[in-house]
Amino acid sequence: MYYKFSGFTQRLTGVVSSSAYNPQGLRSNIPSEPPTTFFATPTKLVSESNAAVEYMGANKVPDLQRLFQASEEIPVHLKRGVSDRLLYRTTMALTVGGALYCLVALYIAAQPKNK
Known about the structure:
By secondary structure, the chain is mainly alpha-helical. 37% of the residues lie in helices and 7% in strands. The chain is built from 3 helices and 2 strands, in the order ββααα. A two-stranded antiparallel ribbon has the order 1-2. β1 (2-5) and β2 (12-15) form a beta hairpin. The longest helix has 29 residues, at 82-110. It is flat.
């Protein structure tokens, strides 16, 4: 007797030998063509544009390299301005608040209960 896991009942069920060797999630056929890539696809067809192919986004790496490699007195994690300062201060406030909360909870847990 052959058994197969039933996805409907979530139990083993008795089956014939041919279906026991073909699990439900696996298919024997292989796709004939590879899947299409969806990243870094041009916005225009090559035949439509006579210049170089334009991609979805501009390359921001050189600008960011210039920004982060400039010799200023600002730390690297704060160089992008107000949003970085806000994220940094929020993170520090949450960290200090969480540490204080843990100390208070530890202090409360260490006190004996009064009867």
